[in-house]
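Operator note (shift B, R.M.): manual run for Transcription elongation factor requested after the automated queue skipped it. Running by hand, logging everything below so the morning shift can see what happened. Input copied straight from the record, untouched. If output looks odd, do not overwrite the archive copy; leave it for review.
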Amino acid sequence: MDTKEVKSTVSNLEKAVDDSTILKLLNILHDDVQPTEKLLRETKVGVIVNKYRGHNNPQVSSLVKKMIRGWRDAVQAEKNSRKKASASPSASTSTATSVASTPPPQNKASLSSSSATAPAPALATRSYVGPRDAKKDGVNTQIYDNETRNASVAALYGSLAVERQDPSIHILAIAREIENAVYMAEYSKVNESYRNKLRTFIMQIRNKKNPELRERLLSKQITSERFIKMSPNEMAPEFLKKEIEKMHKQNLFDAQGATEKRAVTDRFTCGKCKHKKVSYYQMQTRSADEPLTTFCTCENCGNRWKFS
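Run finished. Output pasted below as returned.
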């Protein structure tokens, strides 16, 4: 069956209601479809057929499971054959290259003299492609008997390694220090508090906009014990700290600007103590065409009143 025929059969299958029609169409697909990755992607036949896996009719569900299993195996075999085909030329090329680059044999005297005078080879610098993590770096994080602690160390390693080129052994050491500090702070227990704290710390460290935090941790400007006691504001990147400070100053200014300006006068008389030293301020408390409301406070007894 070509792509067009498969799509047509799938369309009829979606419209089918009775079990006999569904079984008939499924058998057609089972017998006539030659599954390839391209065909399955274009027609989405696997997606449609898979919907009948939990069908009430056991014949339908059994046939669907058999079809899906067979198609999956066929596609996997296709992928494996492609991999083998692509690997063969590269293997032969590398073999030819190694043979061509093999130096001619030398006598023992020349080898000993050259080894004595030749400088020691420099250590190769590893160039990391893509995001780093413990598995890609070949780092063993199976340190403890507790899997949660091991997973925490691995997650901390991946967070500390974001956009970093530090040696793996150094990153692992810092990750272990942080995890152990949290573990000890929780009285050597892996509990919900332990998990929540580590989730928070991992998110803060992993933040790509906060390279300063990773730098401070890996350079040990911040100790692990100090780090686990820091507030989110203290961990925030410098640009965010400046924004928070700016907002705080603006809010403080706005709050001060909203304070009522009071004036002291002797035009009003306190109805309670009859003193004339009265402070007042005015506000528009009603509609714009109404007069201002005057709020008075007696500076002598503290009595308050208002009038319009």
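Quick read of the result: The domain at 263-307 is CATH 2.20.25.10 (N-terminal domain of TfIIb). The mean pLDDT is 81.
Leaving this for review. - R.M.
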